[in-house]
Amino acid sequence: MRLEPLRRKHIRRCVEIERILFAGDDPWSAAAFHAELDAGGYYLAALTDTDDVAGYAGLAIAGIPGDRETSVHTIGVHPDHQGQGIGTALLEALLTRADELGAPVFLEVRTDNDNAIRLYERHGFARIGVRRGYYQPSGADAYTMKRQARQAQEVAH
C-alpha cells in the first residue's frame, strides 16, 4: 500500500467506498469530492499494488500562514482492507501536514464509532463537544474532537 495525492481519476472508486461505508447516512457524491479538490484541501488516496483505491482521506485547511486551522473532512477504508493499518497511515499523513502548518486539527466522528474514536484518541484528539443529529438521514450524533497544534520541531523531538 502506498499513499499519493488523491486525483480525479480516483473519485469514482472513492464514491463506491463511501456508499458502502456510509449507506445509512449521506455518502459523499463525486461532486463533493471534486469540490473538495477544487477548494485546495490536502487529499490522499491509499493505493494497493494494483493501483486500486483501498482508502482515502482529506484535510481542509483554513486561515492564513501563522494562523491556520485544519479539519479532517473524511477518512474511509474499504471493508476488504480494514484492519491493515491503512486508516492509521492516512490519519498520520494528515496530521503530519497539519503539523507542518502548525495548525490544530478538528473532526467529527459518530459517537457509536468506537474504533475510530480510539484511533483519534491514540493520536492526541480529545472530545470537545457533541453535535446532536449531525449525521443525516440517520440522525446519529457526532463527537467534535480536537488535537492541539503541534509545531513541526516539537514532533521531531
From TrEMBL:
Q: Name one Pfam family in it.
A: Acetyltransf_1
Give the GO molecular function terms.
N-acetyltransferase activity
Instruction: List the keywords (alphabetical).
Output: Acyltransferase, Cytoplasm, Transferase
The organism's superkingdom is given as Bacteria
Checking InterPro entries in the record gives: AcTrfase_RimI/Ard1 (IPR006464), Acyl_CoA_acyltransferase (IPR016181), GNAT_dom (IPR000182), YpeA/RimI_acetyltransf (IPR050680)
Similarity remark: Belongs to the acetyltransferase family. RimI subfamily.
NCBIfam families xrefs: rimI
**Name assigned to this protein:** Ribosomal-protein-alanine N-acetyltransferase
